[in-house]
From TrEMBL, chains A, B:
The lineage of its organism: Bacteria, Pseudomonadati, Bacteroidota, Cytophagia, Cytophagales. This is Transcriptional regulator, LacI family. Keywords: DNA-binding, Transcription, Transcription regulation. It comes from the Bacteria. It comes from Spirosoma endophyticum. GO terms for molecular function: DNA-binding transcription factor activity; transcription cis-regulatory region binding. Residues 5-61 form the HTH lacI-type domain. It holds the Pfam family Peripla_BP_1.
Length: 347, 347
DNA sequence: CTGAAAGCGCTTACAG
DNA sequence: CTGAAAGCGCTTACAG
């Protein structure tokens, strides 16, 4: 690259010190600098098309105006939507964001944290993979500003912004019950991640508090390694036997997608043969035959607030903020109310 | 943040100069440094958990090992998939990537370029919006290393990595003709972007070289501002009148998505009432009733090669590389071969 | 084999 | 009102 013009070049051209140039261009000490000199400096800066070197500025101020964002996989719509929201909010405050995908892998996550920290990002937004508590604790010990996003560890006193996961599935099950469904299955991920286990807990409580039995056999925990066949099999299992389910709740967007694929290939009719509640919103639903009832996360609010909180906590001694946002249940055709059989309602 | 340990700290602890520490930790001049001192330096570095400050290193070397990536919108699956591929390839070579979304807006693109350049990224990967030729020319004048990705300007002699857009739709139309379709419509974007106009040109040539008339009325150019209703209307228009189309080719992934939505809500049967070729591959297709024939871009190859080329061109005097990758036509049910009417085939 | 010194491009407390 | 000077944390040509 061609050498860019520096403060020194301007200083020389105008015949002043670099200090003065710095002050003028940063609009500092305005009242103490003669208008004439200031004007000339600005003019020359313009002429030479001066662009400050952020790296030098960063070294001096130890602020990079850069945020690190660690997502599960930037190619995943949830992550990329989040990235976009964070980008916009960061930009609004003059920050740039550098991202990395952890692939839900603790080693990768650690490597990303190290890389981003070596690059002196001012703060970190982290969708933490399972098994990264110790990494997060270390960050905290180092007093690195960060906020956990989407996931968090209940055992750690850190800032986070996440969904009220418990309530999200609770509401979904409640809605199914209200619509007349009684044998409700759950397809979820086998993981220690709190935000997922909370979803299972919400499902269980909703059943019990509505007088329905919680049956372990109706909860299918998948590893996520072999998605399409595993989900297909889980659905089959739930729908066969002497006590088949009449509704299924999915606890993640991927599971929902794989589930709908399986439902399509198994020619299951929604909602007459099976009611379905999906997790997260996605364009893909719109191409599916039946419109899908789903749990909608307030992504916009989540990304925006998380970024704001992070930016806040760049100031020393900012208190921890822990927020659980409420999901919205978007009710569509896949959970249409059952006409309760006359026999039952008569009794 | 807590003060991190610096080269100086190690130097003091060991009782040597920072220079020596730097050499040892960077594995330089290995043969000229006593094993004992080197060992001790490494040990202390380990003990103090030394992490080099990339910013300082960057200021000195004027290399940041950071790549800038400008996409249309990181929330768009095409962009985010690309971002992921770039991330992985960059990481493999020890680079980090910072991204920005242009929203196809020249002003935003310019702002992004300036920001990224001020942050001293080593090079730029740009999916250039329409109307940014001058920005790209300026980059070239400044000898900033960059490679255009997905889009490019035929008038500019710059490195790029893109699709063979002409051939992509040519092949699609050819396939439709081979399958017996004769009245083929095109739904495309109204834009000056070369990669899109090439797709229209491919469509036109394929028709003409296969003895079919090119009719302007069968090409619908949409602004993209009002997607769902506009696409629905375009499809209706193409399928009514005295010469309705029997097939439609879409030239972008968004158009395809909106098109399929419209097709679903208009209850058009694929392929009996209409054959469809989509652009790009997306999960969403898998939830659609009919499996969709689509033009598949070699995303992986594109992102990976583009990154490699950019990394290459960080070395001075690297020649320009211009590459058009071939698309693959993935043939599925939506363009099933028509049984040619007996009358016609008999003649 | 080792180190003093300059310098990357800025900012800023301090002195005048 | 203005500027000399130190320093952020590194690298590296140079001297010994």
């Amino acid at each position: 690259m061609i050498k860019k013009t520096s403060l020194k070049d301007i200083a020389q051209a105008v015949g002043v010190s670099t200090a003065l140039v710095s002050y003028v261009l940063n609009n500092q000490k305005e009242n103490r600098i003669s208008k004439e000199v200031a004007r000339k400096i600005r003019q020359v800066a313009q002429e030479l098309n001066y662009q400050p070197n952020q790296i030098a500025k960063s070294l001096k101020t130890s602020k990079t105006r850069t945020l690190g964002l660690i997502v599960a996989d930037i190619a995943n719509p949830f992550s990329s939507s989040m990235a976009r929201i964070v980008e916009d909010e960061a930009d609004r405050q003059g920050y740039t964001v550098v991202f990395g995908s952890s692939d839900e892998n603790p080693q990768k996550c650690q490597k990303l944290i190290t890389t981003l920290l070596n690059r002196q990002v001012d703060g970190l937004l982290i969708a933490a993979p399972a098994g990264t508590e110790s990494q997060i604790m270390t960050l905290q010990k180092q007093t690195v500003p960060f906020v956990l996003i989407d996931r968090y560890f209940p055992s750690l006193k850190t800032s986070y912004l996440a969904l009220d996961n418990y309530q999200s599935t609770y509401d979904a099950v409640r809605h199914l019950v209200d619509s007349g469904y009684q044998r409700i299955g759950l397809i979820t991920l086998k993981t220690s991640l709190f935000h997922i286990t909370e979803r299972t807990r919400g499902y269980q409580s909703a059943l019990q508090e509505n007088g329905l039995p919680f049956q372990k056999s109706r909860v299918k925990e998948l590893s996520g390694n072999n998605p399409t066949p595993d989900v297909a099999k889980a659905i089959q299992l739930l729908r066969t036997g002497q006590d088949p389910v009449d509704a299924i709740v999915f606890t993640t967007n991927s599971l929902t997608f794989w589930g709908l694929k399986a439902i399509k290939s198994q020619h299951i009719n929604l909602p007459s043969e099976l009611a379905v509640v999906g997790f997260d919103e996605t364009d893909a639903y719109e191409l599916f035959d039946t419109s899908i009832t789903y749990i909608r996360q307030p992504l916009q609010e989540m990304g925006q607030l998380a970024t704001k909180i992070l930016l806040e906590s760049l100031n020393p001694n900012t208190p921890i903020t822990q927020t659980n946002l409420k999901a919205t249940l978007v009710i569509q055709a896949s959970t249409q109310s059952l006409s309760v059989p006359a026999v039952q309602s008569a009794e």
